[in-house]
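Narrative of activities, Objective 1.

The group set out to show that a structural description can be obtained from nothing but a protein's sequence at a throughput compatible with the screening campaign. Below is one input-output pair from the validation batch, recorded exactly as produced.
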Amino acid sequence: MSTQTETTTPKAEDDTGHLSTASTSNSDNQATGKNDTVAVVHDGKTEFFYLEGWRLWAIMGTLYLNTLLAALDVGIVATAIPAITDDFQQLNYVGWYGGTIFLTLSTTSPVWGKLYKYISARYVYLVSIVIFLVGSIVAATAKSSIPFIIARALQGLGCSGSIGGSVLMINYVAHPAKQPMLIGLWATVYMISTIVGPLIGGAFTSHVTWRWCFWINLPVGGPVLVAVLLFFHVPKHVHYPKVSWKEVILQLDLPGFAFIFASLVCFTLSLQWGGLTKPWSNGSVIATLVMWIVLTIGFFVVEYFQGERAMIPLRLLKTRLQWTNTLYALMVNCAEFQVLFYLPIFFQSVHGQSAIASGVNTLPFIALFAVGSMMSGGIIGKTRIFQPFMFVGGLLATVGAALLYTVDINSSKSRYLGPQVIFGFGIGLGCQVPLMVLQSFTSAEDVASVTSIIVMMNSLSGGYFVTGAESVFDNRLLESLAVTAPNIDTSLVLATGATELREVFHGQELTAILASYMVGVKDVFAWSLAGAAFTALLALVVPFKKMPPVEEPVKEKTEDVKEETA
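Output recorded for this entry:
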């Protein structure tokens, strides 16, 4: 284990949420019976304690395994939805089966961030895992749509706390010089999990039952709970402000949560209805779109008046460094998610590949994402320079997305594998950089809040862009069919899985449907192209500066490095 010596004393918040210098008085600590100092002070300097060796990797393994579990569940239900609708006999809830998890995953991240700020990360993390496992049990045993949807909301709530907590724990236990590489590896685990989730879901649905998509979480989640209890203890340089439970509840900003959650529900409903079950001119569609805009504006108004108690304290977005990196974290997934979710649809529908073959053909995307993510993390950790990785990553992603946009029905294997290499490497270079940057420039008392904001931006990408892509794809598919094959039952087309098209349709009907599928996929890829180009331009606005330097850890005797177990 090791320490790092700093010359500045971090700050903590008092009960009113205002910043005050953290006390390091020994008499105060003795009075409370607990070490409440931010760090140990020697000769006017503060020491920060970080893990090394097997203890660090034991924690990293636990965090990565839990991230794997949480990210798998985001997409694992995608290929199971047809079987679920067969059991529940309620096709009108299909959008909620896959979308509900994004609602709670994206909107509760800042709430978890506040909990991590005021309560021991060890216990908050454990609670998030328990909530996720409870949601898994409810989903696996659900007999109708409503309990299943509630279960997916619980899983999203648990995933939100687990994902944000995993990144925060890396900041707590790993030396700053190692954090970029470890966060890059975490991003890779998350990426791989999101891609293989639908494949695992398809395997369970085809060979066992869709309920095993959720039962599988228990034998994996149980050991994660045990590992957290055994290996993770909050280092004593991590300070928790002493506030009342009333103040903690007020800090959760429940009014802000209500506004952002309601706005996302309205957005989801409007895009699920618009052009599909209801015309865009329908009053319900227009009303939900208007309410989405009004509630989103209302959210920022609430955040302004909430001040330090806000889910997203607006002072954390004031500087150019802060707001550009936050916006980059939102937009980089606009490009990524469109390809992530619709490349398999291209493989399975247009090219008639199985779910397994589709997964194999996305390996270039996964592999180069991993290479780019770990490469940028390692180099940034050494050089502390980050802006070029965001810019070059955006440029490469733009080129890759442009090449994917030109792919067509008759494209060869090399034609659709090659662009994935460029696109995956570009996304990997930049996707985790905003989190590294803002954590390094943020004072100790705001790390949890900043982490939760970035996780929220990443998750909102799913809530907004995946829902938006589904609307674009479905509407363009129907528009194309209306021209090329007006006699086809479009509701049957939408209800048929991508891998089942060739079993349900034949001849000219199948040819027309595949061509229409290609139209929808290309438009989604065009959206990905626009998102990638935007990130490249945004990177030019990000300040060109170095992350704060870190000193090499000072070796200490193991018995001198004690940790806070509360």
